[in-house]
Structures are given as structure tokens and as C-alpha cells.
Design brief:
It is a single chain. With 463 residues, the protein is of the alpha+beta class. It has 8 helices and 28 strands. Strands 8-9-10-12-11 form a 5-stranded mixed β-barrel. A 4-stranded mixed beta sheet has the order 1-6-7-3, with no helix packed on it. The longest helix is centred in the C-terminal third of the chain and has 19 residues. The protein is elongated. The two termini are 82 Å apart. 24% of the residues are buried.
Amino acid sequence: MATIVTPGTVVGSADKKSPGQGTVEENGNLIALLTGVVSEIDGVVSVHTYNEMLRVQVGDTVIGEVVKLNEKSGEIRILSVEGKPNRSVMADQEYAQFHVTKITDRFLHNTADGLRRRDIVRAKVIEAGNVIRIDMREDDDCGVLWALCPSCGDTYEAEKEGDWNVVCRTNGERSFRALADDFGGESGKAALNGAGKRWSGEAEALFAKGSAGRATYIAEDIREDGRERTYFRFEGEGGQGGGRGRRQKAAPGCRLFVGGLSRDIEEDDVRAMFKKHGKITDFALMRDDAGNLRGFGFITYESKNMADAAIADLNGQKIKGRRIGVRDADAPRDEKPKRARPEGARLYVGNLPFKASEDDLSALFKDHCDKVHVQWATDRSGRKKAFAFVTIQPESKGEEVVGKLNGTDFMGRNIKVDVSKPQNRDRRGNSGGKPGGKSSRELRALAEEEEDAKKKKRRPRKE
């Protein structure tokens, strides 16, 4: 049984054999152009097929569809060859090219001035080598046979008005096509091309605008039938400007701001904590570009009563060692509740060990007073610094506690305890007139941190 080959199959070497019907020589090989059976007669290799295909030759008249338009050239896909059996064209001859000067006997600034994609044209083959080249200018029978209006898709009809020779009856748009003599099935249409004539000022003004002037848009009065327009939207997204959807605006008092969250807290834990107070309609904890939590977020309840209950229960609560703040996110700045400062003697505690917790520090002070509130300083990432502020009651015991605990050993470090003095801000908002707005206690704490960092650098590495 003979082997069947397909287009592109190497069927022999060009050194000792020559190509015949259905084959072509390329890079020293004989390549099949058809699907069929290979035969060799006197050194000529051919491919025989039961469904024979056409080979285009110089002088043939072809019918094709315009598929590509460049500024000075274009391309058609050959559909058939006039006067030959209705068969498919060989694979290597399916497309033919033309130059702007081969369209019509009139100067064209651009190929789009005489043709458009999807136009059906008739042309003469002037070259049939590696590239098929065609001409529509030298014969009145060649040119556009059928064309669509780009704006509405209706069929153009031949009608002369100034430089324009086709018109769309649906929207009244006029244009120019390099018409074949039998455009639209009627004879005598090639005369409408104005062979050899100059373009009018109106046409030249349009051509001078370049590609933008030739662009066509969907005509609203043609495509708009009066029905209400509906647009698809993903769930939870809005339609503002095609960008990211905006969240639905909550009723006053229902949207809460939550701050002071630990950076390593789980979203599900926060959601479960707030869900106890009512139905949550929107929940978002803010993250940075790396996906890490930024320590704050927004939670929206179905009703204001639910939001008020959450504020009353959760504002000031300690979660993972940090006290969170919960308030109405939409309240004016002067109405937003400020965190109440605990009453009593406020003490500065420095040189603290990082392994200690707020509970450890609170237990140290509870042996010397009735009530203790600890506020441990942290950096922007939520990590603890080496100092804290402790408020004790009664206030009268402040100096006494300082005397007892200053310099004492606390988990391997000699802590510093002193009375924290209130900040005095000048007109510029600086504390005590010092630049940067830091109190003497804060400056001392920063100095202690720097000194501690230097000591760590000086520690010898273990062998």
C-alpha cells in the first residue's frame, strides 16, 4: 500500500531528483504541497491526489478577499481562479500581494483610500514566483466587486457624488472604492473611479489627517435601538470608570475603624471577635505591597446598634499584647473619642529585657502599689522597644516606687525607673521647644537603645 503524504512532508532530495506536480524544491529538499501519493518517473517526484488543487499562473484572473492593508501595500486571500475548475488553490499560493500603485488609475495616499478589509476584489496575476503579485489598475474589469460599510455593516451601493463613488443607504455614509466595472452586478461602474483626476480640497483635507481621519466608528444612531443598556459586573464590584469597584457606602455609624492590631494576628480571629456583636456586611484589614498586615482595618455592621455595641465592648481591649482602638470611622475628627489616659503617677521604665511581657512588668509593680497600667512602646512594625510607661495608683506613691525599683534587677537587666514629666509643647508643636517633638524621657530611651545596640555589636562571636 502506497504511503500518503501531507503538505510540508519531505519526499526526496533535490540533488538527484527534480520537483514535479504537487512538490516544490526548498533548501535542497523536495517538499509535498498536496495530500496524496508520491510517485517518481525518470527522476521527477510528484504527488498525486484525488482532490486536485489549482496552481496560480501569470495571466490568471483571481477573486479574493482583502485581508491586510499596510500604508503602501496590501494582501488578499485568493478564493477562486476565473475560468478554471472550482478547486482550492495550492497552499503556497493562497495569498497574493499588491502595491498601492496597482489599485486604480488615480493617486492614492494610502491603500485604505481605495480598499478596505473584507472587500471582495478581482485582480490579474502579474507574478507567480515565491510571492504571488496582483494588479487591479490596468483592466476595468478588475477592482472592488462588493464592499461593506465599516460603520454599520450594510452593503455599499455605487453612486457618484464629488470624489465619492459609493454610499451606504442605511446611514448615508459616502466613501471611495476602486470599483470594478461590474461592481454590485451592474456594468459601467469603473467610470465612477475618476481615473486620472485630482482630488478635491475636501478629500485632501480628510487624507491630510492621516490614519485618524480615515478611522471609522460605530454610528450610535444605527446600532442603538433604544433598549436599556445592561453591563456585566463581577459580584461586589462597581462600574466607576472601568477601574476597581467601589464599596457600597455604609449608613452613618455602621462603619468602624480598628487600629493597634498586631502585625501577626489572624484575620479569622478578628472577624470572629467582631462577629459576636452583629452581622458584618464588609470586612477589610489593610495590607502593604508585600501582603503584610498594616495594623488597622475597617469593619461595617448592618446597623448602628451593632457597631455601638462593638465599640463599647472591644475598644481598649488587649489582643496579643496590644490594646486595640475601635471607633466610628466616619465621625468628624473633633468627635472621635480620644483614648483616655489612665489616672495616677506615670513612670518611665527603661533598659527593659525584650523577653519580658507586659504582664511580667505589671507583676513587678503590683507589689508596691494598688493598681498598675502598662504601656509598652513599640516601633512601626509592632516590635517592642526597650522602654515602657507604667501608671500606678495611688498617685502619691510615685516617688516611693521610683526609689524602690530604680536600678533593680529585672529578668537579668538593671532597669531604670523615673517619674515621667508631661510634654510642654511650643507653638510649633515641639515638646519643650526641642526639635522633633520628643520629651527628655523619650530622648533618653532612644539613647539607651543606641547604647544597647553598640554593646551587641561588640560581643565576640562564638567559635
